[in-house]
Magnesium transport protein CorA (Runella rosea), 1770 residues
Amino acid sequence: MTPPPNTSTFGLSPGTLVYVGPEVAKDTTLKIVKYNEQYHEQHTIKQIKDCQISGDKPYISWLDVDGIHESGVIEAVGQLHNIHPLLLEDIMNTRQKPKIEFFNETYVFVSLKMLYWHDEMGEIEAEHVSFLLGSNYLISFQEKRTGDIFGPVLDRIKASVGKTRRNGADYLLFSLIDLIVDNYLEILERMSEELEELEGLILAGKHKDPISELYNLKRQLTLMRKYVLPLRDMLSQGLRENSKLIGKSTFPYFRDVHDHVINAIETIDSNRELLTGLIDIHYSTLSSRMNTVMKTLTIYSAVFMPLTFIVGIYGMNFDNMPELRQPNGYFYTLAGMAVLAGGLLIYFRRRGWM
Amino acid sequence: MTPPPNTSTFGLSPGTLVYVGPEVAKDTTLKIVKYNEQYHEQHTIKQIKDCQISGDKPYISWLDVDGIHESGVIEAVGQLHNIHPLLLEDIMNTRQKPKIEFFNETYVFVSLKMLYWHDEMGEIEAEHVSFLLGSNYLISFQEKRTGDIFGPVLDRIKASVGKTRRNGADYLLFSLIDLIVDNYLEILERMSEELEELEGLILAGKHKDPISELYNLKRQLTLMRKYVLPLRDMLSQGLRENSKLIGKSTFPYFRDVHDHVINAIETIDSNRELLTGLIDIHYSTLSSRMNTVMKTLTIYSAVFMPLTFIVGIYGMNFDNMPELRQPNGYFYTLAGMAVLAGGLLIYFRRRGWM
Amino acid sequence: MTPPPNTSTFGLSPGTLVYVGPEVAKDTTLKIVKYNEQYHEQHTIKQIKDCQISGDKPYISWLDVDGIHESGVIEAVGQLHNIHPLLLEDIMNTRQKPKIEFFNETYVFVSLKMLYWHDEMGEIEAEHVSFLLGSNYLISFQEKRTGDIFGPVLDRIKASVGKTRRNGADYLLFSLIDLIVDNYLEILERMSEELEELEGLILAGKHKDPISELYNLKRQLTLMRKYVLPLRDMLSQGLRENSKLIGKSTFPYFRDVHDHVINAIETIDSNRELLTGLIDIHYSTLSSRMNTVMKTLTIYSAVFMPLTFIVGIYGMNFDNMPELRQPNGYFYTLAGMAVLAGGLLIYFRRRGWM
Amino acid sequence: MTPPPNTSTFGLSPGTLVYVGPEVAKDTTLKIVKYNEQYHEQHTIKQIKDCQISGDKPYISWLDVDGIHESGVIEAVGQLHNIHPLLLEDIMNTRQKPKIEFFNETYVFVSLKMLYWHDEMGEIEAEHVSFLLGSNYLISFQEKRTGDIFGPVLDRIKASVGKTRRNGADYLLFSLIDLIVDNYLEILERMSEELEELEGLILAGKHKDPISELYNLKRQLTLMRKYVLPLRDMLSQGLRENSKLIGKSTFPYFRDVHDHVINAIETIDSNRELLTGLIDIHYSTLSSRMNTVMKTLTIYSAVFMPLTFIVGIYGMNFDNMPELRQPNGYFYTLAGMAVLAGGLLIYFRRRGWM
Amino acid sequence: MTPPPNTSTFGLSPGTLVYVGPEVAKDTTLKIVKYNEQYHEQHTIKQIKDCQISGDKPYISWLDVDGIHESGVIEAVGQLHNIHPLLLEDIMNTRQKPKIEFFNETYVFVSLKMLYWHDEMGEIEAEHVSFLLGSNYLISFQEKRTGDIFGPVLDRIKASVGKTRRNGADYLLFSLIDLIVDNYLEILERMSEELEELEGLILAGKHKDPISELYNLKRQLTLMRKYVLPLRDMLSQGLRENSKLIGKSTFPYFRDVHDHVINAIETIDSNRELLTGLIDIHYSTLSSRMNTVMKTLTIYSAVFMPLTFIVGIYGMNFDNMPELRQPNGYFYTLAGMAVLAGGLLIYFRRRGWM
């Protein structure tokens, strides 16, 4: 929920490039992919100046910048492709929330989050991803932390399967967003399973203290919602805006992702509701157990207090206590106490306490 | 709440047909119905290629695909009728939420959920249903699990009763949706009855632990809401959109279904509110019982603790205890204790604890 | 909250007339009222065919159908006045929520609920009322259960007082709706009074178990809200729609009813909020009473447990217990215990437990 | 929250003038003020017919009707100034919620509430105030209960200070509304102070039972919100509507009042939230006190129960109990009990219960 | 939450200048900065009449008024620059919520809050800041309490770094707003850290009474939300409005601040949700501790009550008690009690109470 610790940006001139995410030791990797239906080429770039791509080519160019922690690299890429300084700031700012921005017909800027689910910690980790879609090219930026997240699409292009090779840069953008959104659904699936397991334990009253676990799940869902929700508006804005950069033929695909996003949001919301319900059930279980405990205590006290009082009476040392002198006094007393105890137990059973 | 376990679709090319619902052993059944006011014909299809229907006939054609788990069959039906691959994905995706889509004037795609109420488990089961309405024909897709859900409409067409035979394919679509929505109201009726029964038990304080039952009902209502809510927007969008495929004369009928859907949503919402109220009442009952238990315990203790102390005093073995030597000491002590107990009981009654 | 038990309508052809409300033994009564500023006539109809009224008369015609449980009668009235079959279904469907519908310039359909407050049961009963406003006539439908609810307006027309006689059929419709809405405010008034009474008892801590009463009131308010809320949109839609059937001169009157409806909704909402507050107060009272009970128990135990222990010590039968042999041992022990008890009481008073 | 007891208006013809507020013994006072930059005149009217004012004068005319309980007076004023009967009903109806209505270019009707804060009862009292703004004149109606609320504006006009004398009737209306809204802020100030005091007591745990006080404050805030909220829409509607009666130059002033109203609403809402927080804190305090009480009780019991049991053992009268015969048995027993008690106390301290 | 104590403004003529903030001892400081790309000048003003700046100069003029508690100074500045009296009221009114107002093409008025976080008190302090943007000049007003908040921007202009020197007065305005909004994010960062610390303590069950701390944090967040929320609408209104005073080239910058504001609001909201969750966890911890306490008490009682009763029996003084005479009666009794105690402990362990 709380953003990662950061270098303060207070008082800096706006547009100053500062990386605020967790520290990264590795260098930035730049990869260029060029393809059309017939042609395919893919290579890693050594010198930043070689990374320039443009849209006036007979193939689709895709520049993948893997690592956003080196401001020098980002700045250079930005200058070569004429990117607005504030956009560069957004690309490096890992705390930037998902958004879409249209810059006339020159390019479309899209930024969102790739999510990872760490099973052992039960935590979601977010990686900041940005796209710049030009007329015939795409530039993607990702954090260099968990390996290349665009692997499956790269493989698809290389293997020449799927529709990616036959379609434009907008379809490539769709494929990458689709990959990320499908991953949301995967994560939600796993959280749902964990939730269902917890639910079983709680309903069976077998989980002693599920609150902190429920609380963590709720927190992760809240975090996830924060990342997923803006995507809904982002995508519908993308469909509304009549940019030439996103062709009409890719519209059904974007609508499809939009549907998946809505699905994800609904699953998040229903899971959150489920969590609230489970918390209620847990409290109810606690309360009714307390009730049982208290009833047990009360019945014990109600039965033994009078008995102990009676034996106390006959333990007194008065000189003149006629009962003590009767031959069967002791046995009558024992019998009387048995009758009293029995009567009390019957009474409590009738009141429904036992 | 949680979707059924599924084959992962992560990393697959979009538009790849994957069935994600529960496993089904039976084969897909294809049925064709052709009718107009005078004419009626109905037969099951053996070979997929015979299932092609079209709108340029003097009768209404209805192709009912019973089973959506065989991607081969769905793909073949799709190719024969020129259906967009993404729609085929939606038809097979049992997790797809209800939606309507207009494809120019060629066809209208509608997808929703048929619901079943399992009394013994107190659970709702959803079956994914899709429709493709063309100018003079309708294709319906349903999961092959619980038998043909369109029975009553088939019977009506066969028996030549009702308005179905006199009207177009849009009226047929309405009849089928109406059937599904009427069923929602039936289910809600049953849930309301169950709720009312629970309510009686809870208000009478006779239900020991109603929380998990209430929780399950709430969950089923949440689930149902998720399926029913999108229908409202879907139907109003259907009425707004000026498609030639849905004639003006069927508008009042669609408005009627729309009304029923709103009615269903309101019943769901008021039942949910009722449930929340019942949970509150249950807690209140728990609390006030706890209060009674605690009061009983306290009164017992308050009465017997001083008495036991007094008898303890006279059970001491000091050599010099003048009271013990008095002939009536024992009787005075008993009397004193009776007065003390009586006084305490009067005091507690005055404080309203008894 | 739950609709009354009903004959199932599942699988029936849409537009089939089925009465779903509580059983009614009486016959339907049909009454015709004709009036203008000079003229007035009022009579009950024996044969259904005589009930036809039309708008091309120099007077206002009002047909009041008292009883909607006989589908034959409703169907006949419908045929004579050319009413759409779905509207007839709505007229008979006592579960239909309030709505307005404009059928070109032919007629306006309005349906709402007359409410009754049963003091002894603390329950609201709803009667389904529908209106059909034509250019110069009005047809009203009501359930035959609690007598003619339009009495006051009928009397006003007969007595030639008020503006009703000088105005058109739209003003008549307004008068009848106004009558129904005024009744809502009456009922709310009574509920408010009951609530205020309950509030007094709860704040004074005199009501042992107000939860089920509060719960019932909340339920009735929820029910009422369900009936009243749609009226707001209904009336504003009626004012927006530019129908010739509702004259501009009656607009201020309809706006006035609209205001009353909003007033009713606000009163419902603030009463509901009040109820929630009272439930909280009740719980708080329960909690703080529990606190008092527990403190009493704890103080008793804290005082008497050490004392009982001490007297137990001197009740032991060891041969060598020097204290027991001292002449004043008993009195010193008594004094010591008095000091201990006093000290404990002072301590608890300082801690604020007494 | 609940409206004052009233004469029922059920079944009456709409537009019938009925006063529903608390009973008033005093007569209505009618006051006329005429002024422009040079001229000023102010006098009380004896006969109703003299109260007629109009806009075609070289000065601003203001008729202040102090008292709305005499339907005869209101009706006469209404007839002299051509006011719609439904408006007269609204003027007299103390339960009418704030609203604005434009009657072409003839007049603007504004109704709102003057609020009073009764410190001793902690209650808000509302007085119904209405205005009728014509082209060059203003008629104001107020309840005759707590003295003339327009005093400060009257004084300002008389003293020839401020902008009121230089401006039109619309500025006069603004001044009067501003007066009323400023008073809202005053009341909120006082409530805030009271709340802050309560907060201090609750946080310090010094208030035994703050719930009913918090509840009352919440209720008053809810009540106030009901009166203030409609003003926001009312004023923005007044600014939107392009009436000639409200000049463009007074727009900044009305926007200013609008700002104050929003400020008041926000203060109400944040105070309500604060109240909810305080209720939570109070419950938390109750709970943790209960915890302390229970721990005390448990520690007492845990320590003294075993001790009392031990002394009980040696109080038994068996013939053969070797310990009793040992010379130091008593002292060993005392020492053993001290060790046991000490051990238990150390154990409970380690568990954090002490 | 509650506004600072103030001089009442009730009954005053609108536009009367009253300072309502905390008392300030220092004099107002007036500073003028003039700059363009080549030129830079900065000096403090002695006499108010020298403070007049205007837009028809070849450089940007910025007048910074440090101190808003002297109505004379504000009035003089207002007259020299032709500012509407109501705006002057807003400038001095520290309770004024953030807003933007466009006065044709003459000037834009912006008012917002600079926030300070007092670590030791855990409280937010707000300083009222207003801006008046003309075509080529800017006037800023700030409270003279905590030193000049515009320091970093002043330094940037002096040092000739950043884009401020190359851009117009609108960019200067943006820089100052950006400074204030960046500070919001700083404060939120610190609150998040504190929250995370609290969270750790609560989840570990180490914080005894975190409620008042959580409550204070929630209150500060509510307060902050009140100050930050209006900025969102304010900035989007500023972007919507097509004022010549704010150039198209500064739009991306303002959109950027807008993004930061939304980010701040979302962090506030998610922190508030987190707080609610922590409160729940705290209650749950309290409840389950209570449960443990009660179980301990009950087990103690359940074990020792029967034992004490048994020893009480053999402490009775009846003449005829055969058991007492048996040589091994004492040892049999001890053994029996050990068996009973063991059995009870096993029983409670089986029930899961130990």
